[in-house]
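Record Serpentine Receptor, class T, 311 aa.
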Amino acid sequence: MVILVFQIFLCILSIATNLLFIRYCKKALFFHKGCRVLLWTVIAVNILHSILILILQVTHVFKILTSVEACDVLVPPLFCFVFRMPATACFSAHVTVHLAMAIERGIATKQMSTYEKSDGRIGFIMAILSVIFALGIASYGMHKYNIEEETFYCSAATTDTINDTTTGGYLIVAMEAVILIMFGMLYIWNVKREKSASYDFCSKYQNRENLAVLRLLMPMVLLHFVIYSCFISANTIASSIRHLFGSNSAFRAYISAVYIVPVYTVCSPLLLWWIVNQHRRIRSQQLNIMSSKPTNIHDIYFSNYAEAWNR
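=>
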């Protein structure tokens, strides 16, 4: 009961933080439209996941509080499947959208001189493919879900699906590790491009945007990797000691206790919000420095010399 109430609190907090991020940061993301589409997809996935889990947990709490007999807390399996399937897809979509972001930034780096002039079509295509890929992972994990057996807790990981969901979890963690490496390589590539002399304004702008986006996304991807690794590790332990649980109810209780995905959906917009504000503050400081005019002839000389050197 305490775990359910805590998860309800996390879901409500997640919805609030993601909506606040949309309100206060929608005008602060001066990135390419394709990148913005993918970033808003992450926020939308966070909100949808939180709403679905909130409905499930509120249902459980309501049944517990209003039950007269033990069987009154049981939830229809079809109800569980209808809400758990899209929630599991959201669970997978976090990593598939991250992969799409890495690919999109790779294209932006490769086409540095022309990418800014392109429309956001690639972002929409990547977002759609990410959702389809996530649905495929979720379908694989839940294709053995028993829709005839009532349960007291709705979970994607049941005694029938635990092996497949664990395999899907391994895939997600492995993909996130690869994505982290991809982001690191892209960052190094863009840093080297920044240091190389270039008089192409479009290339310079795109290079700086790439670095800003990578600095924004890398902490979020790392946070996702850490939280999901902990969650998958807990599921792996559950799979290996499943025979030690006295009943299916005890197994479901353990699964509900280790479901820490709402922690990510709460923390990720807060982390993005903080990084965006930091980026905006640094940018304002740079603009103030650039707009300040030197007052004497020596300052004018060295200011012009510095500008010529940094070109």
